[in-house]
Amino acid sequence: MRSTSSRNRTTRAAKPAAALLAAALALALTGCGGSDDDSDSGGSKTSGSGSGSSVTLPKLDGQTLEVAAVWTGAEQKNFMKVMDEFKKRTGAKINFVPTGNNTSTFLGTKIQGGKPPDVAFLPQVGVLHQFADKGWLKPMGAEAKAQLDKNFSKGWVDLGAWKGKQYGVYAKAANKSLVWYNTAAFEAAGITSPPKTWKDFLTTAQTLSDAGSPAVSVGGADGWTLTDWFENIYLSQAGPEKYDQLAAHKIKWTDPSVTKALTTLAQLWGKNDLLAGGNKGALNTEFPKSVTQTFSGDNPAAMVFEGDFVAANINADTKAKMGTDAKVFPFPSVGANPPVVSGGDVAVALKDGKGAQALLTFLASTDAAQIWAAQGGILSPNKEMDMSSYKDAITKQIAQALLAAGDNFRFDMSDQAPAAFGGTAGVGEWKDLQDFLRNPKDIAGTQQKLEADAAKAYATG
To answer: Which segments carry the region annotation Disordered (predicted)?
Structure first.
Protein backbone atom coordinates (compact mmCIF):
# COMPACT_ATOMS: atom_id res chain seq x y z
CA MET A 1 0.00 0.00 0.00
CA ARG A 2 1.24 3.50 -0.80
CA SER A 3 2.46 5.83 1.92
CA THR A 4 -0.27 8.11 3.22
CA SER A 5 1.79 10.37 5.45
CA SER A 6 1.32 13.46 3.28
CA ARG A 7 -2.38 12.74 2.86
CA ASN A 8 -3.01 12.29 6.56
CA ARG A 9 -1.19 15.47 7.39
CA THR A 10 -3.61 17.47 5.27
CA THR A 11 -6.88 15.76 6.07
CA ARG A 12 -6.61 15.27 9.83
CA ALA A 13 -9.26 17.45 11.50
CA ALA A 14 -10.87 17.64 14.90
CA LYS A 15 -14.58 16.93 15.09
CA PRO A 16 -15.38 20.38 16.56
CA ALA A 17 -13.70 22.11 13.60
CA ALA A 18 -15.85 20.21 11.13
CA ALA A 19 -18.93 21.02 13.15
CA LEU A 20 -18.02 24.71 13.24
CA LEU A 21 -17.55 24.79 9.47
CA ALA A 22 -20.87 23.09 8.87
CA ALA A 23 -22.57 25.55 11.22
CA ALA A 24 -20.94 28.50 9.47
CA LEU A 25 -21.98 27.12 6.09
CA ALA A 26 -25.54 26.59 7.26
CA LEU A 27 -25.71 30.14 8.60
CA ALA A 28 -24.26 31.59 5.41
CA LEU A 29 -26.61 29.69 3.12
CA THR A 30 -29.66 30.45 5.24
CA GLY A 31 -28.97 34.11 4.62
CA CYS A 32 -28.59 33.70 0.87
CA GLY A 33 -31.54 35.29 -0.85
CA GLY A 34 -29.79 37.37 -3.45
CA SER A 35 -29.33 36.89 -7.15
CA ASP A 36 -26.32 37.45 -9.34
CA ASP A 37 -26.75 41.18 -8.85
CA ASP A 38 -26.26 41.01 -5.08
CA SER A 39 -22.48 40.96 -5.27
CA ASP A 40 -20.34 42.62 -7.88
CA SER A 41 -18.11 40.65 -10.16
CA GLY A 42 -14.49 41.55 -9.59
CA GLY A 43 -13.23 40.24 -12.90
CA SER A 44 -12.46 43.71 -14.20
CA LYS A 45 -10.01 44.26 -11.36
CA THR A 46 -7.62 41.66 -12.71
CA SER A 47 -8.54 41.31 -16.35
CA GLY A 48 -5.77 43.58 -17.54
CA SER A 49 -2.01 43.33 -17.27
CA GLY A 50 -1.36 46.77 -15.84
CA SER A 51 -0.18 48.01 -12.48
CA GLY A 52 -2.83 46.00 -10.64
CA SER A 53 -1.16 42.71 -11.56
CA SER A 54 0.02 40.67 -8.58
CA VAL A 55 2.48 38.51 -10.51
CA THR A 56 5.18 39.03 -13.15
CA LEU A 57 5.22 36.56 -16.05
CA PRO A 58 7.83 35.96 -18.77
CA LYS A 59 7.27 36.65 -22.44
CA LEU A 60 6.45 33.45 -24.32
CA ASP A 61 5.82 34.86 -27.81
CA GLY A 62 5.22 32.11 -30.34
CA GLN A 63 5.15 29.28 -27.79
CA THR A 64 2.14 26.97 -27.75
CA LEU A 65 1.23 25.30 -24.48
CA GLU A 66 -1.06 22.29 -24.34
CA VAL A 67 -3.30 22.17 -21.27
CA ALA A 68 -5.35 19.08 -20.42
CA ALA A 69 -8.30 18.86 -18.01
CA VAL A 70 -11.56 17.00 -17.60
CA TRP A 71 -13.77 20.05 -18.15
CA THR A 72 -16.19 20.49 -21.02
CA GLY A 73 -19.04 22.91 -21.70
CA ALA A 74 -19.48 25.75 -19.21
CA GLU A 75 -16.54 24.69 -17.02
CA GLN A 76 -14.16 24.67 -19.98
CA LYS A 77 -15.47 28.02 -21.22
CA ASN A 78 -14.95 29.61 -17.81
CA PHE A 79 -11.41 28.24 -17.53
CA MET A 80 -10.52 29.63 -20.96
CA LYS A 81 -11.26 33.12 -19.66
CA VAL A 82 -8.29 32.60 -17.34
CA MET A 83 -6.20 31.35 -20.24
CA ASP A 84 -7.16 34.40 -22.31
CA GLU A 85 -5.52 36.61 -19.69
CA PHE A 86 -2.43 34.40 -19.57
CA LYS A 87 -2.14 34.64 -23.37
CA LYS A 88 -2.51 38.42 -23.22
CA ARG A 89 0.26 38.78 -20.67
CA THR A 90 2.76 36.30 -22.13
CA GLY A 91 2.00 36.10 -25.85
CA ALA A 92 1.70 32.33 -25.62
CA LYS A 93 -0.94 30.25 -27.37
CA ILE A 94 -3.07 27.72 -25.48
CA ASN A 95 -4.32 24.44 -26.89
CA PHE A 96 -6.92 22.96 -24.51
CA VAL A 97 -7.41 19.18 -24.60
CA PRO A 98 -10.34 17.56 -22.73
CA THR A 99 -9.27 14.32 -21.07
CA GLY A 100 -12.64 12.67 -20.56
CA ASN A 101 -13.48 11.09 -17.21
CA ASN A 102 -10.56 8.63 -17.39
CA THR A 103 -8.00 11.36 -16.84
CA SER A 104 -5.18 9.10 -15.63
CA THR A 105 -5.57 6.69 -18.55
CA PHE A 106 -5.72 9.53 -21.09
CA LEU A 107 -2.64 11.24 -19.70
CA GLY A 108 -0.73 8.00 -19.15
CA THR A 109 -1.18 7.10 -22.81
CA LYS A 110 0.00 10.55 -23.93
CA ILE A 111 3.02 10.48 -21.61
CA GLN A 112 4.08 6.98 -22.61
CA GLY A 113 3.68 7.96 -26.25
CA GLY A 114 6.11 10.83 -25.77
CA LYS A 115 3.51 13.57 -26.24
CA PRO A 116 2.44 14.78 -22.79
CA PRO A 117 0.64 18.11 -22.42
CA ASP A 118 2.65 20.92 -20.84
CA VAL A 119 0.23 21.26 -17.92
CA ALA A 120 -2.56 18.98 -16.77
CA PHE A 121 -5.23 19.27 -14.10
CA LEU A 122 -5.55 16.08 -12.07
CA PRO A 123 -8.92 15.56 -10.34
CA GLN A 124 -7.53 12.91 -7.99
CA VAL A 125 -4.72 13.42 -5.47
CA GLY A 126 -4.06 9.68 -5.76
CA VAL A 127 -3.17 10.19 -9.43
CA LEU A 128 -0.68 12.92 -8.46
CA HIS A 129 1.02 10.40 -6.16
CA GLN A 130 1.08 7.72 -8.86
CA PHE A 131 2.42 10.06 -11.55
CA ALA A 132 5.08 11.47 -9.22
CA ASP A 133 6.24 7.96 -8.30
CA LYS A 134 6.57 7.17 -12.01
CA GLY A 135 8.69 10.29 -12.55
CA TRP A 136 6.10 11.86 -14.86
CA LEU A 137 5.72 15.16 -12.99
CA LYS A 138 8.07 18.15 -12.95
CA PRO A 139 8.55 19.90 -9.57
CA MET A 140 7.33 23.49 -9.28
CA GLY A 141 9.91 26.20 -9.84
CA ALA A 142 10.81 28.92 -7.35
CA GLU A 143 8.46 31.57 -8.77
CA ALA A 144 5.46 29.25 -8.79
CA LYS A 145 6.26 27.98 -5.30
CA ALA A 146 6.52 31.55 -4.01
CA GLN A 147 3.02 32.36 -5.27
CA LEU A 148 1.71 29.12 -3.82
CA ASP A 149 3.15 29.70 -0.36
CA LYS A 150 1.92 33.29 -0.33
CA ASN A 151 -1.67 32.59 -1.37
CA PHE A 152 -2.62 29.14 -0.05
CA SER A 153 -2.93 27.58 3.39
CA LYS A 154 -0.63 24.74 4.35
CA GLY A 155 -3.33 22.11 3.89
CA TRP A 156 -3.82 22.95 0.22
CA VAL A 157 -0.08 23.35 -0.34
CA ASP A 158 0.59 19.92 1.13
CA LEU A 159 -2.08 18.29 -1.04
CA GLY A 160 -0.05 19.30 -4.10
CA ALA A 161 3.17 17.81 -2.66
CA TRP A 162 4.46 14.26 -2.50
CA LYS A 163 7.53 12.78 -0.80
CA GLY A 164 9.07 16.15 -0.05
CA LYS A 165 8.60 17.73 -3.48
CA GLN A 166 6.03 20.35 -4.50
CA TYR A 167 4.36 19.44 -7.77
CA GLY A 168 1.08 21.27 -8.07
CA VAL A 169 -1.36 24.00 -7.19
CA TYR A 170 -5.01 23.37 -6.32
CA ALA A 171 -6.32 26.25 -8.39
CA LYS A 172 -9.87 24.94 -8.31
CA ALA A 173 -11.59 23.51 -5.24
CA ALA A 174 -15.05 22.17 -4.51
CA ASN A 175 -17.35 21.93 -1.54
CA LYS A 176 -19.04 18.59 -2.10
CA SER A 177 -21.44 18.74 0.83
CA LEU A 178 -24.31 20.69 -0.75
CA VAL A 179 -27.88 20.03 -1.89
CA TRP A 180 -29.39 22.42 -4.44
CA TYR A 181 -33.15 22.84 -4.60
CA ASN A 182 -35.89 24.26 -6.81
CA THR A 183 -37.68 26.84 -4.69
CA ALA A 184 -40.91 26.59 -6.71
CA ALA A 185 -41.13 22.85 -6.03
CA PHE A 186 -40.59 23.41 -2.31
CA GLU A 187 -43.25 26.12 -2.22
CA ALA A 188 -45.75 23.98 -4.14
CA ALA A 189 -45.28 21.17 -1.61
CA GLY A 190 -45.66 23.55 1.33
CA ILE A 191 -42.06 23.12 2.51
CA THR A 192 -40.91 26.28 4.27
CA SER A 193 -37.36 25.33 5.29
CA PRO A 194 -34.73 22.88 4.00
CA PRO A 195 -34.01 19.71 5.99
CA LYS A 196 -31.07 19.58 8.40
CA THR A 197 -30.92 15.85 9.20
CA TRP A 198 -31.02 12.74 7.03
CA LYS A 199 -34.34 11.72 8.58
CA ASP A 200 -35.82 15.11 7.70
CA PHE A 201 -34.31 14.86 4.21
CA LEU A 202 -36.14 11.59 3.56
CA THR A 203 -39.38 13.09 4.89
CA THR A 204 -38.93 16.14 2.66
CA ALA A 205 -38.30 13.91 -0.36
CA GLN A 206 -41.48 11.94 0.31
CA THR A 207 -43.50 15.16 0.74
CA LEU A 208 -42.20 16.47 -2.58
CA SER A 209 -42.97 13.18 -4.32
CA ASP A 210 -46.49 13.12 -2.88
CA ALA A 211 -46.99 16.67 -4.20
CA GLY A 212 -46.10 15.54 -7.71
CA SER A 213 -42.45 16.56 -8.04
CA PRO A 214 -39.65 14.07 -8.76
CA ALA A 215 -37.91 14.48 -5.40
CA VAL A 216 -34.20 13.84 -6.03
CA SER A 217 -32.24 14.01 -9.27
CA VAL A 218 -29.25 11.63 -9.28
CA GLY A 219 -26.53 11.68 -11.96
CA GLY A 220 -25.84 7.98 -11.73
CA ALA A 221 -24.45 7.62 -15.24
CA ASP A 222 -21.35 9.35 -13.88
CA GLY A 223 -20.10 7.05 -11.13
CA TRP A 224 -18.14 9.79 -9.37
CA THR A 225 -21.37 11.45 -8.21
CA LEU A 226 -22.31 8.23 -6.41
CA THR A 227 -18.99 8.16 -4.55
CA ASP A 228 -19.79 11.65 -3.26
CA TRP A 229 -23.16 10.45 -1.92
CA PHE A 230 -21.42 7.65 -0.03
CA GLU A 231 -18.63 9.85 1.32
CA ASN A 232 -20.95 12.44 2.83
CA ILE A 233 -23.03 9.79 4.56
CA TYR A 234 -19.96 7.88 5.72
CA LEU A 235 -18.14 10.92 7.11
CA SER A 236 -21.22 12.14 8.96
CA GLN A 237 -22.11 8.71 10.31
CA ALA A 238 -18.78 6.97 10.94
CA GLY A 239 -16.73 10.06 11.77
CA PRO A 240 -13.40 11.53 10.62
CA GLU A 241 -11.09 8.82 12.00
CA LYS A 242 -12.94 5.99 10.27
CA TYR A 243 -13.09 8.12 7.10
CA ASP A 244 -9.31 8.48 7.07
CA GLN A 245 -8.86 4.76 7.72
CA LEU A 246 -11.14 3.74 4.86
CA ALA A 247 -9.56 6.32 2.56
CA ALA A 248 -6.15 4.74 3.23
CA HIS A 249 -7.61 1.20 3.04
CA LYS A 250 -6.51 0.58 6.61
CA ILE A 251 -9.94 -0.90 7.23
CA LYS A 252 -11.78 -3.05 4.70
CA TRP A 253 -14.87 -2.16 2.73
CA THR A 254 -16.54 -5.09 4.48
CA ASP A 255 -16.27 -3.18 7.78
CA PRO A 256 -19.58 -2.76 9.70
CA SER A 257 -19.27 1.03 9.31
CA VAL A 258 -19.58 0.62 5.53
CA THR A 259 -22.55 -1.70 6.01
CA LYS A 260 -24.25 0.99 8.05
CA ALA A 261 -23.53 3.73 5.49
CA LEU A 262 -24.82 1.67 2.55
CA THR A 263 -27.91 0.75 4.54
CA THR A 264 -28.54 4.44 5.12
CA LEU A 265 -27.98 5.29 1.47
CA ALA A 266 -30.43 2.55 0.48
CA GLN A 267 -33.13 4.38 2.41
CA LEU A 268 -33.14 6.81 -0.52
CA TRP A 269 -31.84 4.75 -3.43
CA GLY A 270 -34.17 1.90 -2.51
CA LYS A 271 -37.27 4.04 -3.09
CA ASN A 272 -37.79 4.16 -6.83
CA ASP A 273 -40.53 6.80 -6.56
CA LEU A 274 -38.19 9.31 -4.86
CA LEU A 275 -35.66 9.37 -7.71
CA ALA A 276 -36.21 11.34 -10.90
CA GLY A 277 -36.87 8.66 -13.52
CA GLY A 278 -36.55 5.96 -10.87
CA ASN A 279 -33.38 3.92 -10.41
CA LYS A 280 -33.19 3.17 -14.13
CA GLY A 281 -33.54 6.83 -15.01
CA ALA A 282 -30.88 7.81 -12.48
CA LEU A 283 -28.43 5.32 -14.00
CA ASN A 284 -29.00 6.88 -17.41
CA THR A 285 -28.59 10.47 -16.19
CA GLU A 286 -25.21 12.16 -16.49
CA PHE A 287 -24.22 14.90 -14.06
CA PRO A 288 -25.09 17.93 -16.28
CA LYS A 289 -28.56 16.52 -16.96
CA SER A 290 -29.10 15.89 -13.25
CA VAL A 291 -28.81 19.66 -12.80
CA THR A 292 -30.83 20.79 -15.80
CA GLN A 293 -33.71 18.45 -15.00
CA THR A 294 -33.89 20.05 -11.54
CA PHE A 295 -34.17 23.62 -12.80
CA SER A 296 -35.89 23.34 -16.17
CA GLY A 297 -38.63 21.41 -17.96
CA ASP A 298 -42.36 21.00 -17.40
CA ASN A 299 -42.01 18.94 -14.22
CA PRO A 300 -38.54 19.56 -12.79
CA ALA A 301 -37.02 17.57 -9.96
CA ALA A 302 -36.92 19.31 -6.60
CA MET A 303 -33.39 18.58 -5.38
CA VAL A 304 -29.99 17.64 -6.76
CA PHE A 305 -26.93 16.82 -4.66
CA GLU A 306 -23.46 17.88 -5.72
CA GLY A 307 -20.77 20.48 -5.15
CA ASP A 308 -20.63 24.22 -5.62
CA PHE A 309 -19.82 23.65 -9.32
CA VAL A 310 -23.53 22.97 -9.88
CA ALA A 311 -23.84 26.75 -10.08
CA ALA A 312 -21.97 26.79 -13.40
CA ASN A 313 -24.51 24.43 -14.95
CA ILE A 314 -27.44 26.36 -13.50
CA ASN A 315 -26.09 29.61 -14.93
CA ALA A 316 -25.13 28.20 -18.33
CA ASP A 317 -27.84 25.64 -19.04
CA THR A 318 -31.02 26.89 -17.35
CA LYS A 319 -32.96 30.11 -16.91
CA ALA A 320 -33.09 29.66 -13.14
CA LYS A 321 -31.81 32.60 -11.13
CA MET A 322 -29.37 31.85 -8.35
CA GLY A 323 -30.71 32.83 -4.94
CA THR A 324 -34.27 33.09 -6.24
CA ASP A 325 -35.22 30.03 -8.28
CA ALA A 326 -32.22 27.98 -7.16
CA LYS A 327 -31.04 27.80 -3.57
CA VAL A 328 -28.78 25.47 -1.60
CA PHE A 329 -28.45 23.89 1.83
CA PRO A 330 -25.70 21.82 3.53
CA PHE A 331 -25.80 18.05 3.10
CA PRO A 332 -28.06 16.77 5.89
CA SER A 333 -26.38 15.42 8.99
CA VAL A 334 -26.67 11.65 9.29
CA GLY A 335 -24.89 11.22 12.62
CA ALA A 336 -23.16 13.44 15.12
CA ASN A 337 -20.67 14.72 12.55
CA PRO A 338 -21.87 17.23 9.93
CA PRO A 339 -20.16 16.24 6.67
CA VAL A 340 -17.67 18.62 5.05
CA VAL A 341 -16.14 16.91 2.01
CA SER A 342 -13.87 18.86 -0.30
CA GLY A 343 -12.42 18.12 -3.70
CA GLY A 344 -10.29 19.90 -6.22
CA ASP A 345 -8.22 19.92 -9.38
CA VAL A 346 -4.45 20.22 -9.07
CA ALA A 347 -2.43 21.78 -11.90
CA VAL A 348 0.89 20.01 -12.54
CA ALA A 349 3.66 20.34 -15.12
CA LEU A 350 4.37 17.34 -17.33
CA LYS A 351 7.06 19.09 -19.40
CA ASP A 352 10.17 21.03 -18.53
CA GLY A 353 10.48 24.62 -19.69
CA LYS A 354 9.54 28.12 -18.61
CA GLY A 355 6.14 27.97 -20.33
CA ALA A 356 4.71 25.30 -18.06
CA GLN A 357 6.25 26.92 -14.98
CA ALA A 358 4.89 30.33 -15.97
CA LEU A 359 1.40 28.87 -16.22
CA LEU A 360 1.70 27.26 -12.77
CA THR A 361 2.90 30.60 -11.41
CA PHE A 362 -0.11 32.37 -12.90
CA LEU A 363 -2.56 29.74 -11.65
CA ALA A 364 -1.19 30.18 -8.11
CA SER A 365 -1.70 33.94 -8.24
CA THR A 366 -4.63 36.00 -7.00
CA ASP A 367 -5.03 37.39 -10.51
CA ALA A 368 -5.97 34.02 -11.99
CA ALA A 369 -8.16 33.14 -9.00
CA GLN A 370 -10.19 36.33 -9.28
CA ILE A 371 -10.73 36.03 -13.04
CA TRP A 372 -11.88 32.42 -12.65
CA ALA A 373 -14.12 33.15 -9.67
CA ALA A 374 -15.79 35.98 -11.59
CA GLN A 375 -17.08 33.48 -14.17
CA GLY A 376 -19.15 31.61 -11.56
CA GLY A 377 -19.43 27.95 -10.65
CA ILE A 378 -16.05 27.47 -8.94
CA LEU A 379 -14.41 27.91 -5.56
CA SER A 380 -10.80 28.93 -5.13
CA PRO A 381 -8.66 27.84 -2.16
CA ASN A 382 -6.64 31.04 -2.75
CA LYS A 383 -6.99 32.77 0.62
CA GLU A 384 -5.60 36.12 -0.58
CA MET A 385 -7.99 36.69 -3.48
CA ASP A 386 -10.62 39.45 -3.43
CA MET A 387 -13.82 37.71 -2.33
CA SER A 388 -15.94 40.29 -4.14
CA SER A 389 -14.78 38.62 -7.37
CA TYR A 390 -17.36 35.86 -6.97
CA LYS A 391 -20.20 36.18 -9.43
CA ASP A 392 -23.06 35.67 -6.98
CA ALA A 393 -23.73 35.91 -3.26
CA ILE A 394 -24.35 32.19 -2.80
CA THR A 395 -21.00 31.09 -4.25
CA LYS A 396 -19.20 33.82 -2.30
CA GLN A 397 -20.68 32.65 0.98
CA ILE A 398 -19.92 28.98 0.22
CA ALA A 399 -16.32 30.00 -0.51
CA GLN A 400 -16.05 32.03 2.69
CA ALA A 401 -17.34 29.12 4.75
CA LEU A 402 -14.85 26.74 3.14
CA LEU A 403 -11.92 29.08 3.71
CA ALA A 404 -13.04 29.58 7.32
CA ALA A 405 -12.12 25.94 7.93
CA GLY A 406 -8.46 26.62 7.23
CA ASP A 407 -6.86 23.18 7.00
CA ASN A 408 -9.75 21.43 8.76
CA PHE A 409 -11.41 19.59 5.89
CA ARG A 410 -11.70 16.05 4.57
CA PHE A 411 -10.64 15.54 0.96
CA ASP A 412 -12.77 13.45 -1.38
CA MET A 413 -12.16 9.80 -0.46
CA SER A 414 -12.30 8.33 -3.96
CA ASP A 415 -9.86 10.97 -5.18
CA GLN A 416 -7.33 9.77 -2.59
CA ALA A 417 -7.51 6.21 -3.90
CA PRO A 418 -5.55 4.72 -6.81
CA ALA A 419 -7.28 5.68 -10.05
CA ALA A 420 -8.11 2.06 -10.82
CA PHE A 421 -10.39 2.03 -7.79
CA GLY A 422 -11.58 5.60 -7.25
CA GLY A 423 -11.16 7.42 -10.54
CA THR A 424 -11.99 5.31 -13.59
CA ALA A 425 -15.34 4.99 -15.33
CA GLY A 426 -16.76 1.50 -15.60
CA VAL A 427 -14.56 -0.14 -12.96
CA GLY A 428 -13.84 -0.06 -9.24
CA GLU A 429 -15.87 2.09 -6.89
CA TRP A 430 -17.66 3.95 -9.67
CA LYS A 431 -18.99 0.72 -11.17
CA ASP A 432 -19.68 -0.95 -7.82
CA LEU A 433 -21.83 1.94 -6.62
CA GLN A 434 -23.67 2.06 -9.95
CA ASP A 435 -24.48 -1.61 -9.43
CA PHE A 436 -25.66 -0.74 -5.92
CA LEU A 437 -27.91 2.00 -7.29
CA ARG A 438 -29.33 -0.63 -9.65
CA ASN A 439 -29.95 -3.03 -6.73
CA PRO A 440 -29.84 -1.23 -3.35
CA LYS A 441 -30.83 -4.41 -1.51
CA ASP A 442 -27.48 -6.09 -2.22
CA ILE A 443 -25.46 -4.47 0.54
CA ALA A 444 -23.27 -7.48 1.36
CA GLY A 445 -22.52 -8.19 -2.30
CA THR A 446 -21.66 -4.55 -2.90
CA GLN A 447 -19.24 -4.54 0.03
CA GLN A 448 -17.52 -7.68 -1.22
CA LYS A 449 -17.04 -6.19 -4.68
CA LEU A 450 -15.78 -2.90 -3.25
CA GLU A 451 -13.25 -4.70 -1.05
CA ALA A 452 -12.02 -6.95 -3.86
CA ASP A 453 -11.53 -3.99 -6.20
CA ALA A 454 -9.91 -1.85 -3.49
CA ALA A 455 -7.50 -4.57 -2.42
CA LYS A 456 -6.33 -5.11 -5.98
CA ALA A 457 -5.91 -1.38 -6.74
CA TYR A 458 -4.10 -0.50 -3.49
CA ALA A 459 -1.76 -3.50 -3.86
CA THR A 460 -0.62 -2.37 -7.31
CA GLY A 461 -0.68 1.36 -6.54
So the answer is: 33-58
